[in-house]
Design a protein that fits this description.
By secondary structure, the chain is α/β, with parallel strands linked by helices. Helix content is about 40%, strand content about 15%. Strands 3-2-1-4-5-6-7 form a 7-stranded parallel β-sheet, sandwiched between helices. Helix 3 runs parallel beside helix 4 and helix 4 runs parallel beside helix 5. About 35% of the residues are buried.
């Protein structure tokens, strides 16, 4: 798949799924915008990005999404417009687990941090970057869902609430943008994957029984394909999307 000259912003790109997507998409010619809060980790990922395509370039944006507000969101927009003519996609990958505890015992400061990173920041970034996304021929916004976004589960607290919110946010954006822009909005549940967050949530689980982040790449590539433009669905789970990708 040729993604040359496609510019894609990936939040939480210093580790896990975001890191893998950044590296693999760069190999297909994409210009990658790395967004995260750890500058040293971002530098390490940047050094692994492919730069062999003509006019290909990448950008690091250091930002703490827990503190994102209108001003800093517009600073991100300005930084992108200074380097690129358009933005072809946003992959909202950044998230934190928070505390695995009862709602009664949940600390308010931790609650706010989880909701700010997992829900408020994707909302702010999407509404702010919409104008530059509209300059793309095949613009995409991909939100990251979870198995705890559909049924409330004890001890998942703010993380579960944030993913319930992301599901609704994606559906509203999809409904609002489908008739006024060419932006396609997707909500994707990658399922159980070998990540640090998964290990924190389920420490007794054998990580070797889970798929690796690399196995998700083909699914994310499908979102940026012309075929996905015809999709009437905006919510996908890994099990279903992987079958669709394999069949095509």
């Amino acid at each position: 798949m040729d993604l040359s000259n496609r510019t894609i912003l990936i939040t939480g790109s210093s580790d896990g799924i975001g890191k893998v997507l950044a590296i693999e998409f760069s190999k297909l010619g994409s210009n990658i915008i790395l967004l995260g809060r750890d500058s040293s980790k971002l530098d390490q990922v940047y050094d692994q990005l492919d730069c062999s395509f003509k006019s290909q370039k990448h950008l690091i944006l250091q930002a703490d999404l827990a503190l994102l507000d209108n001003e800093s969101a517009h600073e991100i927009l300005r930084a992108i417009t200074e380097e690129f003519i358009s933005l072809d996609g946003i992959i909202h990958n950044a998230a934190i687990l928070g505390s695995m505890t009862t709602l009664e015992d949940y600390e308010l400061s931790r609650w706010d941090e989880v909701l700010n990173i997992n829900l408020r920041a994707p909302f702010l970034l999407t509404k702010t970057l919409k104008t530059i996304l509209e300059r793309s021929k095949l613009p995409r916004i991909i939100f990251t869902s979870s198995g705890v976004a559909n049924i409330g589960r004890a001890f998942w607290g703010a993380y579960s609430v944030s993913k319930f919110g992301i599901k609704g946010l994606a559906e509203i954006f999809a409904n609002e943008l489908e008739t006024t822009t060419s932006i396609k909005v997707f909500n994707f549940d990658p399922g159980a994957t070998q990540t640090k967050m998964r290990a924190s949530a389920r420490p007794a689980e054998n990580p070797q029984s889970l798929k690796t982040p690399n196995e998700l790449v083909s699914c994310y590539l499908w979102f940026f394909s012309k075929e996905s433009s015809e999709s009437k669905e905006n919510y996908f789970e890994y099990a279903d999307l992987s079958k669709k990708v394999t069949s095509t």
